[in-house]
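Why this split exists: single-chain examples teach little about how molecules sit against one another. For that reason, every record in the complexes split bundles all components of an assembly together and asks for one structure covering all of them. Below is a record exactly as it appears in the raw files.
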Amino acid sequence: MILALAAGLLVLAVLALILITTSREAWPAFTHMGLNFITERTWDPPAEVFGALAFIYGTALVSLIALIFAVPVSIGIALFLTELAPRRLRGPAITVIDLLAAVPSVVFGLWGVLVVAPKLVPVYRWFHDVLGGIPVIGSVFAEPVGSGRSFMTAGLIVAIMIVPIITSISREVFSTVPRADKDAALALGATKWEMIKGAVFPHSFGGIVGAVILGLGRAMGETIAITLVIGGSTQITPNVFASGNAMPSVIVSQIGESTGTFTAALIGLGVVLFAMTVLINTLAQAIVRRAEARMRGATS
Amino acid sequence: MNRNVLSRRVLAGVALVATIALAGCGGNDDNSGDTGTDAGSGSNEYANLSGELKGGGASFPNAFYTEAIAEFKGVASKLTVTYNSVGSGQGKKDFGANLTDFAGTDSTVKDTDGVAAGSYLYVPTVAAPITVSYNLNGVDKLQLSPDTLAKIFQAQITTWNDAAIAADNPGVTLPSTKITVAHRSDGSGTTNNFTKYLKAAAPSTWKLDSGDTVNWPASTQGAEKNTGVAQLIKSSDGGIGYVDFSDAKESGLKFAAIKNKDGQFVAASLDGATAALEGATIKDDLTYDPLNAAGATTYPITAPTYILVRTKYDDAAKKDLVKGFVTYILNEGQTLAPEVDYAPLPDALKTKALAQLDKIQ
């Protein structure tokens, strides 16, 4: 009991220490830039202008794209494995997906930059030709960059990386749905899909959100794979086929040759990233709590 | 480039075996790397040095230092020298914090670098051209003036058939391909030197200032390290970027001839780089700026690199080790430089650099 409490407190203490020390290191940049640090879009080290907005945007966009692709696929795989797949297929399929999680991210990055990015350029062109003319949507699918290194490519690569995480947690969650609930739904004449919708999903909502949040955490913190495929431009554009940059990539590529306020600004990016993940986690917990309360209300 | 260095390491190994074999045959002073300009610089001079030397810093001269250290091992077998290419900035920090015995740097020391003023000396070692490499279908020869170059890298010129590029290349048919500008996404001394060149050679056009990282226009793309930029140029038709000489050569990229201060278009070469060093003004502390140097055969984008040594080593033995190693770099090392695509120092500068070593206490 005491041991568990101590372990819990230790985690909190480590988190607090990380936040305190990084904030202290980043302080010169925060005082230099003020609130502009997160609202300014220019990143100009020689002029000592450090605005993180373009990188915050890049991290958010890449994570969003990754989730859009990874969440449906992961939940689909998890459902297939728990509800539909023949027993013989289940074992090997799980092994393969877990293996995907064991591939180092730099391998994904290299594969992305050498194979995927160039191959995707014609695909991006096609999307641009088909959808580019439509107002609003067209600006999202504007002219792709020639190298294929873009928000979209980064998002897709990260999506592949977070699929195993979301899948394996969702699978665990689905397997905790009581047999009785499922049998009851089927006994009422529900089809398999109606049973999943009526019995499996409501029961597992909180768990799925948890799985997605873990995947999102990985996506936001992913560094080397994104660095390789995102293209390294500082810009805010709705065009998902354009090059950009993300916070972890900027930190890792620029800290080596930085001094003074520049170093502080890079550490500041880390603080912002840290704050963003904490914020999103808290938000997600709130969503789960509300949703679960609502569902309990509906079922009782 | 790695493959290149590796194969050279193998070669170096073979050379080393050969040297040992020669020594075994009784020829004691026959050191193939000896330039012979300095009296008594045979292998015996270094043979008594023993201990350990730690250095670190710029990645730009890393291939050269690696090669020189490997060869140095053959004449000073009891002295172990290590060089970590952690970047100029980190190299200076570590040197200032007494973690290393010498540092490699492409840039001069600033107040914020963590090295106390007056505690160090610059020793120039080698120089190398920075190429402007490009990938443009059907164009094998390209000439660029500094103003055009600045406009391209500021994304003011966006297609290859722009009038400014055409004016630099009379008689060449240029396609209407879009220009993809590739730059370093990591902080780099190469970026610093390239932007410093543009600032010096195209002062009225270049607006991005100079530095290890600058505020590149949104439409340009970044990649990691020289090899990353080279790879990015190769993978985009219409690509252009700045890449160090050895990586550009290794990647099989074409590079543009740049108009120098004397109005001549000169392609990147080691001879062009050495010419730039001869045209540069050497300051009293031996720092010099070969960027945009005068001379008809000068390649204008030539970057210097230095080793930082302490003015005073607390340990007298350490002092001798540093002196021995840097002397080797300045004498025998210079003949190794062209093999790994670096330009040796002109004799006048080399003599000054050797004299600088005598100031170490």
